[in-house]
Model the fold of this input.
Amino acid sequence: LALSGDGARLATADETGAATLWDAASGAETKRLHVREALKQMAFSPDGALLLAASSAEPTVRIWEAATGALVATHIGHRSMLLTASFSPDGLRTATTGADNLTRIWA
Done:
């Protein structure tokens, strides 16, 4: 579950590997993103333009444009399950920590 900073968008995930974007005011579904695995964590970039999703099954983070659903980045580098993932305050980088005891900064 993630809420954009301006409160306009909500993102939810289910166990089938689908992430759904919603208009928070109307409750209308705006975009469905199909992922291959269940998601552990999601976060919007500070400006709400991007959605980050971390897999619970593989050490992968994917980033989509929230408006279009276009995949813009995939980060793979941990050797085991991801524990946390987030955007930097300026939205230019992401940070991840994994069960492999590593923290990674992605540009």
Notes: The two ends are 24 Å apart (CA to CA). The chain has a mean pLDDT of 91.
